[in-house]
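Students often ask why we bother encoding 3D structure as a string. The short answer is that it lets us treat folding as translation between two languages. Here is a chain of 411 residues written in the first language.
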Amino acid sequence: MTGLSRRRRLVAVAVIALAAVTGSACSSSSDGGADGGAYLVWDPYPQFAGDSEWVALLKKCGTSAGVTVERTGYDTTDLTNKALLAAQQGNSPDVLIVDNPVISTLAEAGALTTTDDNKLDVSAMEKNLLGAGQSEGKTYGVPIGANTLALYYNKDLLTAAGVDPAGITDWTSLNAALTKVKAKGKKGITFSAIGTEEGSFQFLPWFWGSGAQLTSLDSPQAVSALALWTDWLKQGHAPNSVINNTQTTSWQEFATGDYAFAENGTWQLANAEKLGFSYGTIAIPASAGGPAPAPTGGEFVSIPVQKNTGRYDKSRQIVACLTNADNLLTTDTTLSYVAPVAAVQDRQAADPKLKVWVEAVRAAKGRTGDNLGTKYPKISESLWTAVQAALSGGKSPQEALTAAQTAASTR
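And here it is in the second language, the structure alphabet:
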């Protein structure tokens, strides 16, 4: 790509960023992101202070590369805008850690180097996780870890209802369990169906678990997935509050002890230990059986394009250090992530409380995979709009998804 064409793409993609942030957000120097022995790292973990294990690891990796790491943590949305603006202005950080769906946006803008360019070795990474950072056959970073969704369950409620969670392996057995729980006067399942990316994220395991594809939102399989959710509301298995629930508020409902199941993620593991009842986890079942493919969350470590290409070698060393097996285990434990490397996943799976999560991540897939790239946000918006319309009773599942497919095709 020529410098002129790359700049044109950056200008087009960064218009939103220019409206959202000011030039003062970028403090890198114009020689490629840093001065002398200082290398800039931007990450989406503002919750980690300077004395945290995460920052200590960053500094350790800088030292091993013979440079000093200067790290800044931003919230995810702010980081995306700043990264686009910095790329347009030619002063990107040396290492950028971003949410995996953002990779395709930055790649399309010409803001990232490929792993072929920067010589990063990704051969040990699990292909289903690596796929979220790939576009048109090129890989634009290294996954640092992944989270995903599963079903938490209330052991006491299931025992009282005579339900063995190990027997819940498909939609039929899950529906039978919900019926038994309701017969005992308890509530079935809570989840997030809010009209945002969170709603799409939570619907995707059921959508993909039906055999549906994001390129055909109105397929019979897709309709069956949305009908599953709408039937739960009609039958009283799920509360009407799911229409407005975030993943946080649906967890709060589960924490009352009144619900048998909650769809939620690895990020709730610490909160699960604080519940006033015994809990367990099972994979979200696919329609015909087995674990459904759930969407992956988590970040990629990438190397942005620099004017001074001589900086890439040190950046590569920093990224390689952050993503080696020993450091991944420490980092992913801190972040409540499942590692992207099979050998480290095996070590995590030795913990009974992580076994289901490792299995769920191994069955998971990236939202921007299947070469969807920057098409995904448009598809997702159409999908969550359809879910909202069907759950509110405004449209049937078929009508809602037919409209979604039309909208996704024209956006």
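Translate back mentally: Residues 376-391 form the longest helix (16 residues). Keep this in mind for the problem set.
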